[in-house]
């Protein structure tokens, strides 16, 4: 009888875990995470680029350039820039795929998408870019549609990462590749401690100063800590069906670029 | 904080900004880039250890490390790169193993021609920021300093040549100096002997 009770409790606990996820350090209902993340990004969208430059001292531009180089993009390719936000990767891909190619900037957040669309149009980049508001877990594209899918600083905000990776795998063409650029685990302990101090003490203050919103940047720091480390994310890519998966640490592992192919 | 990969990206980024800025200021416009639209030149320099690809898109040049889309790839050194201007040298450089070439060399020469034809009206550009009068004065001062430097440089060169042609011949060599020193010592020794002898003779005279 007691064993049955234990089993029942365990099942109940497992069932509760299945319905919850992380929002920074908080445990929230899976259904709630999307709206909470949306709240964060609606709040920071207008100042997103400035904050990125301030937070990373401009190095995010180099991380993104490295992602472009690692993508092996060619003229005529079809690229999906998932969680593309304000369109930094889309802008470069648009120039590199040329008029024969196409880039789709997708983001779940309408505010981010609007900021991205306005920015790219101001740059005169219009001819080969489309904008789609989409959830990475349920991509509204046909199977085998894209040569390249990128998701830069977006995967950690996705509620069900495994589901999103399977969805990305589905829309990639055979021979296509996924590139995940995301904050990760610094390689050296000293760097890790300095990074922790910066993330939890300085970053929210910069957020408060620039966007009058320290909580969103505290979430950012917490969500980075809760995100899978390099090896775990590589295993997740493997489990989603990707082959020849690999990763490269950038800036001492503060950020990692994961790459996987669909064959 | 910047590791090697980031250094490479930083270089590409800086090059891209500088090149496009120079093209935007070019007095002859950027129409010459039109026939290179969506073409890519990749240069692998021995000194750098990573490729630099220059792709043309809508009158802008994108600098990346992408090698997949290259229409012409040059694998060479900075020194050899300068020699590539002369078309007739290309075969010789390949034979000497100083240049590895894949793709259309004419494309590389078209890129080189654009670089050579760049002409920027610096005075007009400067005047837009600091006014015409300040630009005029600054230009005059720069001209004055340049003239002085040119004169000084010419003078130094001329003095140096004169010294090498005439003065250097007159300068004593090490062996000549050693020989001279030895001779001085010998004379000094002989003088001492004579001096002693004179002293002896004087002493002898006094005794008598």
The share of residues in helices of chain A is 40-55%
Total DSSP helices of chain A: 10
Average pLDDT of chain A, rounded to a whole number, is 84
Strand content of chain A: 15-25%
- Judged by helices, strands and strand pairing, the structural class of chain A is alpha/beta
N- and C-termini, Cα separation of chain A: 51 Å
Order of helices and strands of chain B: HEEEEHHEHHHH
Write down the overall geometry of chain B.
elongated
- Describe the strand arrangement of the main beta sheet of chain B, using strand numbers: 3-2-1-4-5
Task: Describe the structure in your own words.
The complex is a heterodimer of chains A (about 260) and B (about 210). Chain A has about 260 residues and is of the alpha/beta class. Helices cover about 50% and strands about 20% of the residues of chain A. Chain A has 10 helices and 9 strands. A 7-stranded mixed sheet of chain A has the order 5-4-3-6-7-9-8, with helices on both faces. In chain A, helix 4 runs parallel beside helix 5 and helix 8 runs antiparallel to helix 9. Chain B has about 210 residues and is an alpha+beta fold. Chain B is built from 7 helices and 5 strands, in the order αββββααβαααα. Chain B has a 5-stranded mixed sheet with strand order 3-2-1-4-5. The model of chain B has no long low-confidence stretch (mean pLDDT about 85). The interface between A and B is medium-sized, with 22 and 20 residues.
